[in-house]
Amino acid sequence: MDSTVAVALAGAGILATVNVYRLFFNRQARTRRALARQPRTAMRDVRDGEPCKIVGRIEYAEEPKLAPFTARKCAGYSVHVYNNDMDGGGGTLLHEDRCGDFFVRDEDGTRALIRGGSVRVVITKDAHFQSLGPGTHIWPKLEEPPPGVEEFLRARGKSMKGLVFTKTLRFDEGVLEAGELVSVSGVGRWEIDSNPRAAGAGYREAPKLLVFIGSAEAPLLVSDDPDTTASLPSTIGR
Fold first, then answer.
1. Could you tell me the pLDDT band of residue 7, with boundaries at 50, 70 and 90?
2. Residue 166's domain spans which residues?
């Protein structure tokens, strides 16, 4: 067998193994499977202080964030930069998740406030870019990274630039956008709703708002993966 072909096949095998690991064995994959198995509770039926999973559509509770690669408005984002150089330096170069506060509203109009300070997100990556080192050929070929990516990396102590040449990097980005269907798993608390326009159950009863707050030890789990939201029809809330 030609040595060039052998090297190419070996490289393809390594990348396939890495992709299998990414898909089935990393923490996000385990979180996704756990969310998919967890039954959904209607928001109106959530019991104060008990773990549960809710499903609904996102509404912004504060000024939206901007995704770092595509500048899309969002409640949260997840970006992953992989180093695909075959020089021993492969693997994850950078992984960053950011999430703010947002609302989730279900089919009967009940909504919950999700505090984004302690959230573990599993977001579908739908924007993909790549930078190629000299002589590198990858198929399928993706778009080149947009302007501002190098600045984003440098602010985090990373760079697309090697000692001499550009690194072979893959950039993946996913976002949580307004109107998107998501699942949230954690502990909900019913609190007094400070919104003066909130409707109460009666004139003697203060209106309540369902609030989910995680912690470093027990973060909220949030995902837009269809497998985690399958218990709610996609037409809900439209």
1. very low
2. 3-229
